[in-house]
Amino acid sequence: MAEHLLEVKDLKQYFPVRSSFFKKTNLKAVDGVSFHIDEGETLGLVGESGCGKTTVGRTIVRLYKPTSGSIKYKGTEIDDNNIRSFRKEMQIVFQDPYSSLNPRMTVADIVGEPLDIHKLYSSKNEREEKIANLLSLVGLNADHSRRYAHEFSGGQRQRIGIARALAVNPKFIVCDEPVSALDVSIQAQIINTFEELQDKLGLTYLFIAHDLLVVQHISRRIAVMYLGRIVEIAPSVELIENPLHPYTQSLISAIPVPDPDTAKKKHRIVLEGDVPSPLDVPSGCAFRTRCRYATERCAKEIPELTKRSEGHMSACFNK
Ligand SMILES: Nc1ncnc2c1ncn2[C@@H]1O[C@H](COP(=O)(O)OP(=O)(O)OP(=O)(O)O)[C@@H](O)[C@H]1O
Ligand SMILES: [Mg+2]
Asked: Least enclosed by CB within 10 Å: which of 112, 178, 179, 245?
């Protein structure tokens, strides 16, 4: 079998926090996550706010050091000693193009900074040429380069953020909700740009969103997270048409349907209660407190992610 581009095994990311004045505790933001991504594919990662999506993305590119678990890139385990050689291969595009770009820097400064850091040019002309190429790659003009980030709209700013990520010629990009802060009308354009760049440059994406609608189009497979764990993972169409985990079923039932007749027939599953605090995760299956199929067993044992059909895994005792 061909090697996966990225292979994550039992990844845990615990943040030490103060739960009260006297007590320190671990916030288990990511608690045993395993998945792989093949070269050239997009894996979507969805789940409600606070379930650990960003933490997974940031830990993979080593913005955070993992508490435990392994991250292999092209078969090599990434650790503190060799991370430098992977820095250029893996990049991240952030959610908020307003706060992630320094408004006092020109576009040329923002896109050129990674070129400077990694010394990727031998003359000033070459640097300018590279910046112009990067801007054109993401659909901006070369003469935008003298302007400041704050002069641009959200969508254009996100294009600047993408150009910056592409500057070091990466193979793998974590896209952390790159369109969530944008107007709906702009979201599709930016997603199209991500797809075009993927075709042109052979990129591999981990594409994070809290909205299934956003990821289903761009992703070949989708993983669903709930409170620090993956509860289901499957090819996109399979996940949408045949969701097995009760949490995935509720997410899918909440997708708005444009056709009123179909909408009437659609049964919406409304989840009771809020997501529990990650400081106080329920025993056993973390979803059981909101699950209509929960049994005694669910409070005692944690259901493992198990194979249900080819490429389709779910972590539930009852469904
Ligand atoms: N640096 C940190 N220190 C302490 N706790 C953190 C840190 N980063 C994240 N958390 C906590 O970890 C949990 C997961 O956060 P994370 O940002 O990964 O969620 P998310 O799924 O990306 O949410 P969102 O959809 O809101 O972006 C949350 O409870 C969050 O408060
Ligand atoms: Mg996030």
From this structure: 112
Asked if residue 53 has its Cβ within 6 Å of ligand 1, the reply is yes
* Model pLDDT for residues 101-121, shown as the tens digit of each residue: 888 899 999 999 999 999 999
For a pocket test of ligand 1, which of 11, 25, 27 has the largest count of ligand atoms closer than 8 A to its C-beta? Answer: 27
Q: What are phi and psi of 25, to 5 degrees?
A: -145, 170
Given a contact cutoff of 8 angstroms between Cβ atoms, the answer to whether 158 and 190 are in contact is yes
CA of 262 to the centre of ligand 2 (A): 32
CATH topology of domain 6-89+170-314: Rossmann fold (3.40.50)
Type of residue numbered 117: I
- Residue spans per domain, the chain: 6-89+170-314
Ligand 1, atom nearest to 51 Cα: 21
CA dist., res. 19 & res. 279, Å (int): 8
Give the closest residue (by CA) to ligand 1 atom 16: 52
Ligand 2 centre to CA of 261 (Å) is: 35
The end-to-end CA distance of the chain, in Å, is: 30
- Taking the centre of ligand 1 as the mean of its atom positions, its distance from the CA of residue 51, in whole angstroms, is 7
**Per residue in 217-249, pLDDT tens?**
899 999 999 999 999 999 999 999 999 999 999
Residue ranges of the alpha helices (H) in 118-269?
124-137, 154-166, 184-201, 212-218, 236-241, 246-253, 260-265
Instruction: Please give the DSSP secondary-structure letter assigned to residue 144.
Output: G
Rounded to an integer, what distance in angstroms lies between the CA atom of residue 179 and that of residue 157? 11
